[in-house]
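re the bet — no i am not wrong, look at it urself. input seq straight from the record:
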Amino acid sequence: MELTTGVPKACASTARMPKDSQRLIRQYMPASAYQGPAEYDEPPLIARYTDRMIDQQNSAEVLAQLLQKTLNRLDAMDLRVVLIYPVPEVGYVVPDVLARLAMAGRPLDSFMRPASLYWTRNQRTIAALDGLRSTRGLVRIRPAVRLCDQNECRIEHEGNPLYLDDDHLSRYGAEQLTPLLAAAFGSP
């Protein structure tokens, strides 16, 4: 697995970022989550990992090795790293499920996903992420803390879908992570 930065290496600030990247950051990062200067001192590293990407037997070990190698490089560059853990996946297209519940006259909060599915599916990935060490400090953000309780993971909040589809957070869903992001990046 190759980890790549979401920003080209030469782009250390939003002024030098491609215009599309600047627009997407402004569009999808809730204003309440980031109120810092226009320039990024620490460009984002963006990577997605699932067990399907690497041989199932060795995937957690390979993930841990590659991430630790990347983290060591970022430490050497004196960059702070914010690690966002997996988001619970629903397995159903949430807006469709909510529409069907509404048409049937059932409460929207009557459909939740067992938290055990999230923990079982992600246990090796979470263990690999938990094992990472940094000399500069590593900030860990765990979306499941905001989206799940001990037994279930929510798919809606106050009638608003938390997901666009079966596994991508809606803007509203992403905004539910704002307290975690504000704590990691600093609140205004």
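see?? Helices lie at 19-28, 59-76, 94-103, 115-130, 144-147, 171-175, 178-185. told u. also DSSP finds seven helices and eight strands in the chain. so pay up
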